[in-house]
Amino acid sequence: xxxxxxxxxxxxxxxxxxxxxxxxxxxxxxxxxxxxxxxxxxxxxxxxxxxxxxxxxxxxxxxxxxxxxxxxxxxxxxxxxxxxxxxxxxxxxxxxxxxxxxxxxxxxxxxxxxxxxxxxxxxxxxxxxxxxxxxxxxxxxxxxxxxxxxxxxxxxxxxxxxxxxxxxxxxxxxxxxxxxxxxxxxxxxxxxxxxxxxxxxxxxxxxxxxxxxxxxxxxxxxxxxxxxxxxxxxxxxxxxxxxxxxxxxxxxxxxxxxxxxxxxxxxxxxxxxxxxxxxxxxxxxxxxxxxxxxxxxxxxxxxxxxxxxxxxxxxxxxxxxxxxxxxxxxxxxxxxxxxxxxxxxxxxxxxxxxxxxxxxxxxxxxxxxxxxxxxxxxxxxxxxxxxxxxxxxxxxxxxxxxxxxxxxxxxxxxxxxxxxxxxxxxxxxxxxxxxxxxxxxxxxxxxxxxxxxxxxxxxxxxxxxxxxxxxxxxxxxxxxxxxxxxxxxxxxxxxxxxxxxxxxxxxxxxxxxxxxxxxxxxxxxxxxxxxxxx
Length: 534
Fold this sequence. Notes:
The protein is of the alpha/beta class. The chain has three domains: 4-53 and 163-241 and 348-384, FAD/NAD(P)-binding domain (3-Layer(bba) Sandwich); 83-158 and 244-333, 2-Layer Sandwich (D-Amino Acid Oxidase, Chain A, domain 2); 403-528, Helicase, Ruva Protein, domain 3, CATH 1.10.8. The protein is 34% helix and 21% strand. It contains 15 helices and 17 strands. The strands form two sheets. Strands 3, 4, 5, 10, 11, 12, 13, 14 and 15 form a nine-stranded mixed β-sheet that branches. The protein is globular and about 70 Å long. The two termini are 44 Å apart.
């Protein structure tokens, strides 16, 4: 099978209206918005799309209940509006989730404050109340019977795999005319006579250096924003970012864990989440200042211990120790620089920094942002560059909402792909209306219909689709992001070998390529998903 992304046409000498640096959820959203408005857009990512902060988040689409504590009502309103849009536009990826808020007797927050906050949160989100309470009983049985707990419930949303959301937006950007390149590093922004005129870049696949011209440049590189400025000799009065590392641990699902997500207080009183995720339990997050290389961010042993102790504070009867953790991961949140400020109090609102104040016209740096509000950030960024972008007028679901409609669609995918209904449902959950495209790959032969490993319903055809249609280049691009089966509870080196072998056979890779891809994948997986030391 020919993989067109392996042989990319040269960019040198091309002229674009807009160059976007950074292929996380914010950068991809900006490229998509601008391309849809008819602009020639180039999107550049030094690693893979969604490989940075996006894939190292808590994976919730929320309005930010905790932001009310800091008086950021407008941010909560904006987040809740965008949450509702995602729930309706991407129902296969973004799901309503019940959250249980648990306060111990020594909580710094009173029950009255919480009730008031939840009332306001529901009003801002357009809900009158009446949330389900399906998880409370099972939750109470797990709590320490020796403590007095106050438990409240509210509704938010989860996007288990934001990597898939980014992949969909990426394809939509390309379909609108954007040129998208991963594994391409921006060496510097080219500034001429006080104006950003283009970028110097290096294709990390070929090693070739190139230069392109641009009318506008958007630095949406997340925690690398200041480094892009430094490499370009753009001096700012102070760092634009104050990097904050957030670490998570992922453990086996334990008996009795409620289906609801838990929002509670850690051992130091900070908010913490315990979330059922991908057949496992995710616990996070920490807040630690981090000014190091974002690409090398790792959870510290202190952070892992902090998360384990906080989990045991909530669930003292549940065995939780370092040796039970499947893996831990960390990402750096690109929050605004705030000297000597409490990290929890730093705004989560995104900011657009116009570099004209530093004498560089037509360069914007994106500071902050989150999964929930990426689309709104993109609209604001486009308007800043003079593009007439209107608010979405209506909300249209990608798939019909009825169960019968969904069952019919799954049956259609199963028939088109020649696979079981369970396999078709797994595909539908990740690809929505694009599932039939995956099904066409499955029809190419039995090798395409094989499971990627014995523990999953996801098949080799999905990998082929990722390489052919979703700009995947490496095995890591596929198994960690486009078809993220390697994040599951079963995954091991044996699973990696099986998946690599089956993909190689279906795509007719030579043995040397398969071994090289497998080695690179295992290196990336182990550096991202670290196993804490006992």
